From TrEMBL:
InterPro entries: ACT-like_dom_sf (IPR045865), ACT_dom (IPR002912), AHAS_small-like_ACT (IPR054480), D-iso_2-hydroxyacid_DH_PdxB (IPR050418), D-isomer_2_OHA_DH_cat_dom (IPR006139), D-isomer_DH_CS (IPR029753), D-isomer_DH_CS1 (IPR029752), D-isomer_DH_NAD-bd (IPR006140). It catalyses: (2R)-3-phosphoglycerate + NAD(+) = 3-phosphooxypyruvate + NADH + H(+); (R)-2-hydroxyglutarate + NAD(+) = 2-oxoglutarate + NADH + H(+). Its EC number is 1.1.1.399, 1.1.1.95. The keyword rRNA-binding does not apply. Residues 348-417 form the ACT domain. It comes from Corallococcus exercitus. GO terms for biological process: L-serine biosynthetic process. The keyword Manganese does not apply. It holds the Pfam family 2-Hacid_dh_C. Catalyzes the reversible oxidation of 3-phospho-D-glycerate to 3-phosphonooxypyruvate, the first step of the phosphorylated L-serine biosynthesis pathway. Also catalyzes the reversible oxidation of 2-hydroxyglutarate to 2-oxoglutarate. Keywords: NAD, Oxidoreductase. Belongs to the D-isomer specific 2-hydroxyacid dehydrogenase family. This is D-3-phosphoglycerate dehydrogenase. One of its GO terms (molecular function) is (S)-2-hydroxyglutarate dehydrogenase activity.
Amino acid sequence: MSTPRFPPSPRRPVSTQGPLRVMLLENIHASAQEMLKAEGFEVERLSAALKPEELAERLKGVHLLGIRSKTTVPEEALKYADDLLAIGAFCIGTNQIDLLASSVHGVPVFNAPFSNTRSVAEMVLAEVVVLTRQLFDRSREVHAGQWRKVATGSHEVRGKTLGIIGYGHIGSQLGVLAESLGMRVLYYDVMTKLPLGNSRSVPTLNALLAESDFVTLHVPAMASTHLMMGPEQLAAMKPGACLINASRGTVVDIPALAQALRSKHLGGAAVDVYPEEPEGNSDGFVTELQGLPNVVLTPHIGGSTEEAQASIGKEVATSLLKFVKGGATTGAVNFPNVEAPINPGTHRIINVHRNTPGVLRDINRIVSDLNANIHAQVLSTDANVGYLVMDLDQDVSRQVCEAIAGLETDIKTRIVS
Ligand SMILES: NC(=O)c1ccc[n+]([C@@H]2O[C@H](COP(=O)([O-])OP(=O)(O)OC[C@H]3O[C@@H](n4cnc5c(N)ncnc54)[C@H](O)[C@@H]3O)[C@@H](O)[C@H]2O)c1
Ligand SMILES: O=C(O)CC[C@@H](O)C(=O)O
């Protein structure tokens, strides 16, 4: 775990006077824009990702940032984003964001942990059939005027074994769908998971690779999953087996996969995610896998269905609104989770501070010196930051807010009135 680098204390509350500014990147669904606009926010919606330097520049004065998987949010982009209240990752993966830096800059990150999982599971199931029947190759041939009616190497999926690596929201749904086609389902996960249907967990990755006709990856991008399918693991797969990766591009060693396909050790592959992906739809793309037989290449569209995107738009916009309006951090992936009922007739102070001893004492001294009455106070901390939601009498709330923002330990303070 890297050491947190706290920004200098802001000395002033975040200004939330006037309409809040929202920047949505990467073609986030219009459902999010509609919800945020309905609250009176100024919403700018762009179709592509921004490079970190441009992002840093354009984040000045922005209160809410919405991204998907292509926008990298490094610490540098957060340094001058003094007004940034929260980031919405309109997807599942949050590996593109420096979560520690966001947390110590007082910026919670919200994602959509379930909304696109069914879409991914359906696409992967389709790919199992497409690969075993070599449908894309046959289709390409007929498009080119070639008639190759062959059965060799084509199989039914009934009775074949699907090996799922990562039995989370996607992997477990996929297992249930695959059983409905008569497949045998094995899974390997680092956590103990409830097997659904007749699926069976195996104790090691190698045990899964040795038995599976199809191996599909559904793990997050993290140090322990980096290149987890390398030359050794690919060699451990059954001859003629197919590999599917719709998780993250860093999980599979692409040159090793290309080699395993060229040598015909593997019978095919479907790849949706790549170590480096273009930022927008007009950019070109090159991978070593292009042109190989029985290889399905898709442009990171596992979760790209209208149903999933509309639902993600609403889910993440709802989290952002609950945070802006009441300070709720439930579901934030990098922040202490707090959700306090609204106290009508009070003003709510939202404060993020360095988690060092004595901060609550200092804050309560300010409240007491200003003779303010506390109606509610909820504090939750993690290793780096403390997150405080406090409801006060309206007449003193602004003074209290300004005094708290002046504390050495302060990271971000605002008032919701
Ligand atoms: N292609 C797409 O468009 C698309 C869409 C959605 C999600 N994704 C990717 O799919 C990933 C999985 O999504 P999910 O919703 O199922 O996540 P999840 O968190 O529900 O499940 C991930 C599972 O992987 C397991 N795991 C972690 N490290 C492992 C390891 N080393 N070996 C085996 N298992 C391990 C976890 O214990 C967990 O059960 C996401 O993190 C995201 O990167 C891609
Ligand atoms: O929509 C995207 O950009 C990412 C989809 C997927 O990889 C996710 O993490 O949810």
